[in-house]
Amino acid sequence: MRTVAILGSTGSIGTQTIDVVRRSPDRFVVVGLGAYRAVEDLVAQANLLRPAMVAVGDPALAGEVASRVPSGTAVLAGAEGLSQVAASAEVVVNAVVGFAGLPVTVAALRAGRRLALANKQSLIAGAPVVQAVRRASGGTIVPVDSEHCALHQCLRSATDGEVARLVLTASGGPFRGCRADELRSVGVGDALAHPTWQMGPQNTIDSSTLMNKGLEVIEAHELFGVEYDRIEVVVHPQSVVHSMVEMCDGSTIAQLSMPDMRLPIGYALGYPDRLPVPFGAIDWSALSRLDFELPDRSVFRCLALAEAAGRAGGSAPAWLNAANEVAVEAFLGERIAWGAIADVVAGTLERYEAAVPTTVEEVVDADSRARRLARQIVTEQERAA
Ligand code: MG
Q1: How confident is the model at residue 184 (pLDDT cuts 50, 70, 90)?
Q2: Cα(380) to centroid of ligand 1, in Å?
Q3: Over the stretch 288-300, which tens digit does the pLDDT of each residue have?
């Protein structure tokens, strides 16, 4: 029986993780849950799963949670509480949204745990620090991102020296094939209408700009140690081929499955074993074609910005991510246009001061500085509009 802790348990990945665990009760047991402030859902999950501990990120809500969970469940609060839960299980699922997931990633790795990482932002923004913690502690990361789960599976058939290229697939999002002038007036609802994946709002907007794919290029570089010149992005609208590895002899290994995040979640929980429960096998009579095309970086500028930040290294990915989170929030609040998301990110990165963070505090500081600049640029954009 493998113990599991889920941070960000009330979100999209968190609830799907609970579904996976409940379908394999002989393999996994949830011993810890954590959420920032979704009290109703967190209390319901605690009563269903009866974990040893739950953490609520907002300390003001700890009393209410404590009065409503089973008597055997300890209630912790704040970033400290979330970090304690993150150190408490054999497998720690980090499904916190965005940069706020950094303390969970660091706490899980520092405790030498297996980190099932759905929070790519913590690895991307904090890479120099996160990688040092991972090396020192012997903690491991198994990605909960469909593309990186695919790469992880494909790489099982290769030795290091045999890998020529990683090929990340992208669905292309709702605006695939559109020209820049057609995208000027798109609204929040258009950007949230993803054709193949059900995800939270930040991820869905990031998919519409291809920032998500840019972040995933950096994530692949950090997870697998492959240099940027050997990581490619290919648009594949059916979202059935989740990524590919090209070998030195020209052979390409691909991973195919239906788009369902419960497969990467179950893979990360069960690795090196596969779960005997399939989440939607491919119906070859219904799947008539698989299309591939190259992304247009002049329309989807966020992809190029992310690739450039990844190559710059140091704190540049932290700046990129911070500016993007500010810009997406402003777009969701209908303060800026969809096309201005890339403007905010580009404007922030223009003022990047090169540095390599060596502590979590330095990563947080880089994130804060970039957020301040990005907010200024959002305000300027609003005035100009
Ligand atoms: Mg992905």
Answers
A1: confident
A2: 32
A3: 899 999 999 999 9
State which of 117, 143, 169 marks the end of a domain.
Answer: 143
Residue 231 CA to ligand 1 center (angstroms) comes to: 15
- Ligand 1 centroid to Cα of residue 117, in Å, is 11
How many domains are there within the chain? 2
Q: How many angstroms does the Cα of residue 147 sit away from the middle of ligand 1? A: 5
**374: domain range?**
185-209+296-385
pLDDT of residue 240: 96
How far, in Å, from the CA of 121 to the mean position of ligand 1? 12
- Among 111, 126, 143, the domain boundary falls at 143
59 and 189: one domain?
Answer: no
Give 240 Cα–ligand 1 centroid separation in angstroms: 12
Token pair for 30: 């949830």
pTM score above 0.90 = yes
**Measured CA distances, 82 to 34, 53, 172 (Å):** 6, 10, 34
